[in-house]
Amino acid sequence: MRTVIVTGGAGFIGTNFIRHLLEIRPQWRIVNLDALTYAGNAANLADVAARAPSRYRFVRGDIGDEALVRTLLAEETPWAVVNFAAESHVDRSIVGPLAFVETNVLGTARLLLACRRMWEEKGRPADFRFLHVSTDEVFGSLGPAGHFTETTAYDPSSPYSASKAASDHLVRAFQRTYGFPALVTNCSNNYGPFQFPEKLIPLMILNIIEEKELPVYGDGRNVRDWLYVIDHCEALAAVLERGRPGETYNIGGGAERANIDVVHQLCDLLDERLQRGAERSSRRLIRFVTDRPGHDRRYAIDAGKIQRELGWRPRYAFAQALAATVDWYLNHGPWVDSVRSGEYRKWIDRNYGAARDRADTHEID
Ligand code: NAD
Ligand code: TYD
Asked: Which of 3.40.50.1820, 3.40.50.1110, 2.60.410.10, 3.40.50.720 is the CATH number of 2-262+268-352?
């Protein structure tokens, strides 16, 4: 029996990870610490909580609340802590960077302090581990060729990626300075069930269903390296169990796509399912809009290290997993309605409003 504390487990990847881990490790217990920001939804795991109450505990709280985290660590003496908790949307970080510094930098620092303290007090158990889940965006933008490796220099472009870069540095500093057994993963763009519909793929799926405009930033030729969320969860489980503390692992799908090609593919998948003929093709909804400032051109991951050392490789092909994702959103209308709060609607109006002029946006922190 092992207890794992997962932070940010009510968000997109955390929800999928908790479901995955409970399934593959039937002896393990998971404690989910989540502040339930706009992006967190405790109901994502309501069925798990009902089915296996002894194996799943939800605690509402902030990773930056040191007293609460210390109490939780004392109560649970976890074998591991996996940190997903973060502000995660680039566009929001452009409008209001401070929330990103607060959670991603200060929150992570406070979580690290509390975990290190527990680890010291327990006599530095050799098998404890702290897994910090990060992004490939810390590396900045690639030209048409090349891939990010674990030794690529950090060069973040957005307040989001800068705050994640800072958190990665802190995690590594704790490892080097105190010998704290931490691991870092840097993953490419995920897609799949439970993704909040502010990100490209779910936003486009829902707009296509509702026949709303499809806002493509700039020329639509920015490239992302897409990974199905279940593949990411399998990689994280491998790093958690078999990764070497002190190491960093890049995780990527090897599925590079230009944004406009992804949007075209989504239009075609939904036209087929909604029986929209050529004359009503959803592609007519595409609008090229003002580019995101500081928009990274291309991301691509070299996942050679995790493949060689841990034998992980993605199992899902992009076309199939994208179709499964489309079907998930089509079949989960009530989930979509429940996460589209008043706050969500305000964000959509603010970010995509007709009078939008990004040069004029105000800090909202
Ligand atoms: P998400 O925004 O869907 O979920 C974030 C979760 O963290 C939410 O449940 C939210 O309530 C919680 N949270 C936010 N601030 C908190 C705080 N101070 N204390 C406790 N909980 C808090 O994000 P996601 O897409 O699931 O991403 C999870 C992690 O993975 C992030 O650290 C992100 O940087 C990283 N990541 C994401 C992607 C991607 O494509 N989505 C790719 C690589 C890495
Ligand atoms: P996003 O899902 O926000 O992920 P990230 O910025 O972390 O890569 O965006 C993915 C790509 O899609 C990115 O190049 C920006 C672009 N994009 C649009 O063109 N329109 C949109 O409405 C959104 C949300 C993103």
From this structure: 3.40.50.720
